[in-house]
Hints:
The protein is mostly helical. The protein has a single domain (5-374), classed as Glycosyltransferase. It has 13 helices and seven strands. A hairpin with a 2-residue loop joins strand 1 and strand 2. The longest helix is centred in the C-terminal third of the chain and has 21 residues, at 311-331. It is globular, with a radius of gyration of 19 Å. Bound molecules: glycine (GLY).
Amino acid sequence: MAMDFQEVANKIIAKERAVAERNRGRIPYTTKEPHVFDDHSGRDQICWWTNGFWGGILWQLYAATQEESFREGALEVEKQLDAAFMDYNGMDHDAGFRWLPTAVAHYRMDPEAAASRNRGLLAANSLAGRFNLNGSFIRAWNDWGDGRDTRGWAIIDCLMNLPLLYWASEELDDPRFKAIAAAHADTAARVFVRPDGSIRHIVAFDPTSGRYVRDYGGQGFGEGSSWTRGQTWALYGFTLSYLHTSDERYLDTARRVADRFIARIPTDGTIPVDFDQPAEPVYRDDTAAAIAACGLLTLAEQEGKSPYGDAETSARYRDAAIRLLEMLDRDSCDYDPAHDELLTRCSASYHDQKHEFPIIYGDYYYIEAIWKLTGKELFIW
Ligand code: GLY
């Protein structure tokens, strides 16, 4: 039977009412014991890259229901995140993941929210400051103090942070931010996308000459492999660069990545951690399925609007997204209001000890995808 998206949205709203009530004042990443969220709002974890997603869930719930308790919860997260601005080393390239779903979402909902606009602009300036003219890329992380030199490291995930720069350019009517975003996206299209449409995770450049040095498998199986979440950051990220710039080259790149991703989905419809992982053990990553669904739905929409797009391709992307959501609904989603998590089989990294557990951005992107299909979405990116 076809999935009833409105019915699923109603189940999510009923569940998240209870989850949000239980988790006021916390910023969850995963569960610390079965069905109970942990909390990353403390000083030592406030810079964790996923800390914007719980706020994003609350804003999406508020946009759909206008229920004040969701808005109050989102405002708490936004204020808690201010501590991250005071930790230079923790301020990495993930400024978009932290502040687009929180401060900028707040400002989109309320144009009078001057402090939220200010937070978004501070975050955008921090992100723009990571751009290296030598090599034309945004530096991913600051050094970790473990001897690794990360000055020249860029990662595919950063494409999802670029919308913070597109937003800042619009907001300030200042082309600098957009120019930096486009320069990074051009480098990513040239260096991270392989000829077959698959994606490298980490690329190291020489930070002085800008020369390509090597790439790393990162969170995937290994060098040369296809870490699925990285493929989805690229799919959605290039689509968003097209949405914000109307540059057809980004749409072409998004299509290539999407076509390769769809071609590699296993016959059972689930998404592994890496398309090139060994046949056993089978580790899956539901976050990649949820992010891909959002990316494919957005790509389908942009394809439909582009003067060079075609309706058949648009329908193919939308159908692929719906198949992923049906798979998640069928054998991953936990709609029980007594349980904090929504998606249950997410994986952060192939070589971690732990696989197939709840991760907050899996829940966020699943909700965003269902909201896209039911007309409830607050545009975040
Ligand atoms: N951005 C880090 C990850 O996708 O795990």
